[in-house]
Amino acid sequence: MAFREYKIGARMFGVALSSSMFITLVMPTMDMRQAIATDMAIHKQLSAGWETGFNLQDPFMQGDNKPLTVTVHADPKTGAPINPPMTVYVYRPGVRMPNGVDHPVTLGENGGMLSVQLGHVKEANAAQGAVFGIGHGDVNGQQFAYIEDLTATKGWSPEDVLSKAKDEDIAHIGAGKTLFVREQCWWCHTLLPEETQDWQYFGAPPALGDFNGESPTAFGSDRKAPDLLHVAARNSSREWLMMHFFNPRLVQPHSIMPRYDYLWGKVDANGNKIDFDAWRKAYLDYHEGRSPLPPDVPMYAKDSDIRSLIDFVLSLK
Ligand code: HEC
Fold first, then answer.
1. Are 161 and 186 contained in the same domain?
2. Could you give the CA distance from residue 180 to residue 173 in angstroms, rounded to a whole number?
3. Which residues constitute the domain of residue 69?
4. Number of domains in the chain
5. Which parts of the chain sit beneath pLDDT 50?
6. Nearest CA to ligand 1 atom 26
7. Same domain, 45 and 163
8. Are residues 212 and 232 in the same domain?
9. Do 61 and 11 share a structural domain?
10. Which of 221, 231, 257 most suits a substitution to test ligand 1, by most atoms within 8 Å of the C-beta?
11. Nearest residue (CA) to ligand 1, atom 8
């Protein structure tokens, strides 16, 4: 009898805890099973690849084993022009397949079915590599986006596409997203405009179906800086981004954003060693009024980390 109140309290606590767990864990899971992958979700997972957080294929998060997003202007097999140009996602041999290819059902029931039946994703093979595109198909009069394995449907191999592509048509979005996670941009920036006045400046919040298969989502922890989900829609200048990453104070005098000049690596686009000390000295001369102009920012090398990071930022439209 002495423990009666305790027993009632413990049961009430159990009921409260399990209902709150049900609401926070089970209910959203049921909702997410219904989510139909949008074009955005498929673009994100195909461009970023299987995983852009820590993983054993890229333990130091250097952006290894990632797909390339390529703009194709002509059929790589026949040479016939493609107008408007088409975006394809090239998985070179050995690169792990994206989630929707391993588990088509995660695209939603119909998108998954179309990916298998029309898109032939079951034929994709990581050892040989594959080229993917986004297709659209009808089920009962409604349109669904699906993943198309262009290697199976058109015979385009990663080598066919890459050997014809110019460097400026290749975007290293997957490697760039890995760097966005590794460099912890999400401590300050969100990728999640809220359903408030945010709409007016940062653009529309994402929809549930925009996330199927994306890992991680990089929503951000809290916001100390502008939301970046649609940043390239308001600023798509590669030159501005270069200056801003090399030293944000070049374009925003009171910015609290750290500089990311080390992402340039050791050499510039011409293979010349970048002299960071000389650069900072010249910058200080400018900052303290001894020289009228800041020093030029070196053009980055094609395979530098900063190129991938900027490719990723420019993909956020
Ligand atoms: C310490 C906080 C902080 C971190 C970390 C940070 N930023 Fe920023 N970022 C800011 C602030 C503040 C601004 C706004 C002022 C400015 O433009 O510098 C900004 C602006 C930007 C802009 C321009 C936004 C616009 O609306 O035009 C981009 C793009 C950007 N950051 C990308 C990045 C990326 C990518 C990283 C990671 C490599 C990063 N930032 C890391 C604070 C941060």
1. no
2. 10
3. 39-171
4. 3
5. none
6. 226
7. yes
8. yes
9. no
10. 257
11. 257
Measuring from atom 7 of ligand 1, which residue has the nearest CA?
257
Whole-model pTM above 0.90? yes
Query: What confidence tens digit (pLDDT) does each residue in 231-287 have?
Result: 999 999 999 999 999 999 999 999 999 999 999 999 999 999 999 999 999 999 999
- pLDDT by residue (tens digit) across 185-216? 999 999 999 988 888 899 999 998 999 999 99
Which amino acid residue places its CA nearest to atom 12 of ligand 1?
225
What is the residue with the minimal CA distance to atom 32 of ligand 1? Answer: 185
- Report the pocket of ligand 1 as residue ranges, CB < 6 Å: 180, 183, 185, 187-189, 224-226, 228, 231, 235, 248, 252, 255-258, 260, 309, 313
Which residue's CA is minimally distant from atom 42 of ligand 1? 257
Ligand 1, residues 61, 187, 188, 304: which to mutate, most atoms within 8 A of Cβ? 188
Q: Do 64 and 2 have their domain in common?
A: no
